Amino acid sequence: MNQPFEAQHLIISTEERIWEKGVYEQTEMCYLWADEETSRRCFLLKMLPGSSIPKHDHPYRELAVVLEGEVRLNDDVMKAGDFLTAGLGQAHDVYSEQGCVMYIHVDFDVTVYELVKKDRPGT
């Protein structure tokens, strides 16, 4: 996942993508790039129809673009081409009725750092 330092650029073709079981049920992830020094990660998140991610906060900044389908974050609906940024204190739940694919860039390792769940009303 981490490219050699001397490499000028990295291209991952559609055919080379490797999809793995996601962190949450009915999700898949395709890890594209990682910087081990800063913990930054870029990946694709595929949410299957009817899947959800519980309400959570982020330890650092998240940047996301919907590539395919539609997804709801709290009461907001995002469609293909829409952009999101969220950080600490900007909690949301995520739900996709029809399914979607999102490109996501985060400043933390999603495979190690668990998102902070927000279970209580008003948190």
TrEMBL record:
Q: Which residues form the ChrR-like cupin domain?
A: 8-104
What Pfam families does the annotation carry?
Cupin_7
| UniProt protein name | Cupin domain-containing protein
The residues the entry assigns to the signal sequence are none
Report which residue ranges the record marks as coiled coil.
none
Output the Gene3D superfamilies linked to this UniProt entry.
Jelly Rolls
Name the domain of life. Bacteria
Name the InterPro entries for this protein. Answer: ChrR-like_cupin_dom, RmlC-like_jellyroll, RmlC_Cupin_sf
